[in-house]
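fwd from M.: "can u put these together and see what the complex looks like"

so here's what she sent:
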Amino acid sequence: MVNIGPVHPSTHGVFRMRATLDGEVIVDLEPVFGYLHRGIEKLAEERTYTGVIPLTDRLDYLASMSNNLAYCLAVEKLARIPVPERAEYLRVIMAELQRIASHLIAVGAFLNDCGAFMTPILYMLREREKILDLFEMVSGQRLTYNYMRVGGVSHDIPDEFLPALKKFVDQMPGFIGEYDQLLAENEILLARAKGVGILPKELAINVSASGPVLRASGVKWDIRRADPYSIYDRFKFDIPTGSVGDCYDRYRVRIQEMRQSVRILKQAMDQLPSGEVRSEVPHLIRPPVGEAYGHIEAPKGELGFYLVSDNSIAPYRFHIRAPSLINLTALRDMIIGWKVADAIIIFGSIDICMGEVDR
Amino acid sequence: MAMLTLSPDWPGGYWLHWGVFVVIILVFVMAMIMGFIYLERRGVGRFQVRLGPNRAGPFGVLQPVADAIKVLLKEDIIPAAGDKWVHWLAPVVAFVPVLMLFAVVPFQDGALLADLNIGILYVVAVSSISVVGIFMAGWGSNNKFSLLGAMRAVAQEVSYEIPLVLSIIGVVLISGSLSLNEMVKAQSIPFILLQPLGFLIYFVGALAEINRSPFDLLEADSEIVAGYHTEYSGMKFALFYLVEYAEALAISAIITTLFLGGWRGPVLPPFLWFLIKVVGVFFVIFWIRSTIPRIRVDQLMAFAWKCLLPLALINLLITGIEVLVLPAALPWTIIFVNLAIMVVLILLWSKFFQLGGGRVEV
């Protein structure tokens, strides 16, 4: 019996795996979480609808923009608030940049778990830094952006944003090629990741996995296509899927999604209209009595916010469908029978963020 | 070094030689380790698009010194439930054999502590003692991660010893001597050309022997925290750190001696040639470290027994035939034949060799 975590170099936060070992082979595994529980869902019920947005930043802190977007969509649905055209485009640009940034961390951390001594992740952090610079231009923050608002975004973009974004979009495919050149066909990586930690299609659907984890298992399910929110129906992009559902597929799917995000960014940049970025919204939003569920394809999977309104200034009930947590429920089935070293990379390939798992 | 050979008849000469070389080796090893640590940290920094240490002293050259001071001042912790004596002895048991290796490495012609006529046998014997120290560390710490690391260490180092030794025998056959100094003298052509396959096997085996990436399983930080030295702090941790680099230095020196022509080389003084080659080999070692992912424990064993061992045996067979049948053959023919054989064998193995098992039914 070994406790892998809660404080361990590869648990990506404070997560504990109670593993029963037979030599190096894992015969039983019990995931233990809750170390980072902050009661965000309860806290949100005590705040105004606008005041909740900074809280959502702190869910998946590697993808704050996506969290903001999902929450704002839910409130807009609940209170039936329109969003100006330009704001929709800005939201898509931010969400796709955020997807690239989050996938960079996911892939880098995965390769680091495979033992590629920091080099890939540092290459990827270099590009993530550029995205953070872009976010800093628009929001002044580098981690918890608090950029989107109910009915739009908080500010219009500064003048230097678009040239910088254009430069980034032009460079990024080259950088992705560089990552592939470094390790994609590496013999050791193939031996380590191919066929390891297979999540079969049926199981993936049954645990209601989503995001790259689901798509790597061969299910072509992407909320941007299945239930187009915002203006995603206007963009051309492919949904990359894997074939087997092993760690290698999950890694490849993320790399390809980055390429698709760059594609979306290009289109959004070209079509970006001028105009308002925020519709007229009262300071204290009092949505009519009712309930709403807003969901988006966050980098890690389907991120949903379920809100119940009693016509007061705060949500009556606030629930988060956290993709990290739900993807994590398949962990035990994937890990059992593999070795300690595999357990680490399987866990890494799910790409979780403890801020979102424990909320 | 001229003074060392000045009076072979003087009875005190033996002890003088002994004393001087012990000091030289200690200074050499310590200085080189400091240099290696600095070199690796700066070099890996470059590989990883960052600067590396650059604050302590000019270009950060004093960083190893600063690290050493910091580590010396740290509290020395022994786990409450650990085996105190084993825990205490382990770093020493691991460190001393590595230092002993340098006794037979020729820095230049005849400049070595003891020109044993069984030099390479001594190297193989002594270098395998370190694993005892590592296992003691894992056992004495009373920590599960340490124990996992120690178990991996024993399996790994015992397995890789065999292809390692078999690949050395090829060199021994050609040079006709077990003394490292004689081996260098025999290398009018560096043995890396005559024994390309042997060199590759030795290099890979040596990487596993000294626990460097991609075989750094016993301290795999992303899996088992820090492996056998998880519970070590302060000076004892520093000793393990030194062992790691001293082993890398020793292996670089031995590869230089066995395959790269040791201190031989044109123009520059022999000692400088030796240094250049050692640093070159070390550069390749940390280049690999900063690029390649880690291999899994069962794949590691499969690689040793199913890939390296047969290749080493075939290499030995071919070398034996060449030495017996074609003693006077032109070296260039042999070089060509051996290179061709190496390429064919490696292609064959890469096509048919499968790395280790998959899921275990439980």
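replying to her w this: Chain B touches chain A at residues 44, 47-50, 144-145, 148, 152, 213-214, 216-217, 220-225, 289-299, 350, 355-356, 358-362 (CB under 8 Å).
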